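[09:14] KT: can someone run the structure on this one? pasting the chain below
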Amino acid sequence: MNIKKIQTLSFACCIFAALFSLSLFSFNADISLIAFPVSTIFTVFLAFFMLKKLFSDSNLAFIAVSREFLQYLPYVLLVSFVFRRAGNSGTPFVLDLISVILWLFACIFSLVILHYLNPKYISKISKEWSNYLELKKAERKNSANKSFLKSGIRELLSWIDALVQAVFMVLLLNIFIVQLYEIPSESMVPEFLIKDRVVVFKTLSGPKFPLSEVGLPYIKKYNRGDIVVFRNPHYAADRKSEVRTFLSQLVYMCTLTKVNLNVDENGNQKADPLVKRVCGVEGEQLMMQDGILYARTKKSPDFKVVESDSKWATWNLNAVKPSLKKGIRDLPLTESDYADLLSVEEERRNLNLKETSSECKKISDNFASIWKRTSNTKSGKLSFSDEQLSVYSLFINSNYFTASLLSSQNGSDWFTAFMTDWILKIPEFNGDLYSEANYRLNLMIKLLAGKMILRNAELYISSLQNDVWQRDSIQNENLQKAQKLYTYVMLLDLRNMPVFPANADDGSARYIPKNCYFMMGDNRFNSLDMRHSYDRWNTKLTVFDAYSVTYTTDMQPQYVNRSRMLGSTSYRFWPVSRAGIPGNTGR
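[09:31] RB: done, structure tokens below
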């Protein structure tokens, strides 16, 4: 390689950098305005030092300066690319594509030039360049002997330069090739514990240039059971938040992982990205009941058990092997709690609707009899809000319900409707196990609440003292059952999931769209995943009962498009004792 060819390459590099700068020109009065001048000023300095000083003036003192500018060229242009797309208005895909192509050519030429400007090869370019290199070596040696301070400063600056370049190089590697993640929560226990570190390869997952859709093609197809890293869809994906994410990642690396600016509007650390397992794939409709995942497709319209899900879904952490259990910080349920949960589910499955209807009628008739025997002075008609009909309120405020019903004109009628209205029409569930289970659970709660209200009325009509009420064995037994039912309802949205995607209004099935996936954590009782919203609200336990019990829910399943997926966990390298390929190594 001779000087003339290197000069030609340098000219081409500057031309592509200049064209790239032109592609960043913006007419918007926002942050995108600074992209063009930043890129242009850098390109002008690059051309000045290389084309003017180094080659035109033959001032070999600018070899080192030219090398520095060439080394920073990819990073400065990339930051300018981000600034241009950080404004209020987006950029067309075609313009993004042109900018990326120009960036690639500028980077390729800069890398080739850097190769030949390497001290190992400079001596081969010309005798003049070789003599200059030897002269600089001698000068550095003499200056090091004369001034320890100057050499120390020069060494410090070289270390800072190396650090900054390393940060940007790692940033490029993180975007397009590989990234390391630290597990922040216990949602994937026992597969991953907090502080586990994993490697995620991104190249096959279609990584894109920041704030654009230009990038590598999607090659990776995810399968059920794959553990994936993906952007949290609960957070906004607008341009402003994406810029903040990119800059926070840059600061995070520049501060050697000490400063993380990736926070939400309230200043709380974002749970982004997430690490979960693929549990549903395109073309499926899912449902989970009693911890068992079901799926169906257009070709197989009946829900069938997803057998593989039981290999990684973990419900009782007390049963994991001791070596892992000692590393788990939070055990959501004790062995006794889990046994109670299973007993509630067994009771619900065995609930006889005919016997339940007879029992509900009997309770309402007995209450009506007591209502008639109480004072004829009744207040106006009552009604209860959905919040008052929550599971917690029904059980904890049974005394209030009893007093209100006995003293109201329509108390007996309302209680009869509450206990027996569901009997008029028992629905057909057609394989919807979730809806049927919640319907039955609703009846179990109403039956127990009815017994508690009736018992309160019986104690009231007997004119017993309050301390006798508190020692009543029947009511105490009811309260113990109420505690078990309430605890189960608290776990309801972690243990089950309605049909997802929900059926159309005409009842026809909907399926997870193409290139979309559904993810859950393995630690199902401690995983805020794609089953849940970050908000909570009060809702009816079943739509098939006008007087349904209500509960607080965050159930709002959603799937994730592959464009939000960053890659699969390929290897766990820390701790060394559990190093290996993740999959089902937690068992």
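[09:33] KT: thanks! The chain has a mean pLDDT of 88.
[09:34] RB: yep, looked fine to me
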